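Appendix B. One record, verbatim.
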Amino acid sequence: MAEDKGMQMFLKKMIPKVLKATVMGLLWFFLLYALPTLFLSELVEEVLPGYTQLLSIFAIVIVFFVVVSELLAGTIFQYAFNIGKALVFMAFFIYALNGGFIAFDLEFVHIEADLRVYLAMLLTIDFLGLAKSLLQAIDFLGKKTERQLAI
């Protein structure tokens, strides 16, 4: 009987989280993959070959972290995955921007772009996200310890 009530409480807690994670995952997938590939796939593939694959990988990574973050909301693991997300995005941006130098050919023109400043801005934003997640994890653990001491 007690085991049945425990399962009911678990389901009451998890079903809304699963539904919210599913809706958020579908929304982000639609915004980051379906719309761009619908409107820009041919144009981007002509100008920057290989970036369609990077776009799909980016969408998959974001959807994964959004769903996991929603499912683990209210736990320390949410912050651990946010830290992981920041690290994955740093590596992804470095790879996608080829370390800050982009080169491609348009018919008879070879174009090279130095995007190191933009890469530095993206990495700075990700470092701030990493620091924010670390501070949130410390705050979460501090509050949890205070609640245990108050009891």
